[in-house]
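Hi there, hope your week has been kind to you so far. For a while now I've been wondering how a particular protein folds. I'm sending you its amino acid sequence along with the backbone structure tokens. Could you read through the record and tell me how the tokens relate to the sequence? Take your time with it, there's no hurry, and the full record follows here.
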Amino acid sequence: MNKPLSTLERAFELARSGECASTSEIRQRLKQERYDSVEAHLQGPSITRQLRLLCEEARRQQAAE
């Protein structure tokens, strides 16, 4: 049986997948999926920057395909 992903793990998964184009979309999606304390988990500048860069990279990869 698979252990559910933490809020941060799911945020990074969404960023890498290209399903969300921004950190705002990631936050919204996590809230829709009923993850706990989304704002608290994603408030730091380092996390925000990492997620933003992953979203940008996923968009570039999708555009190249």
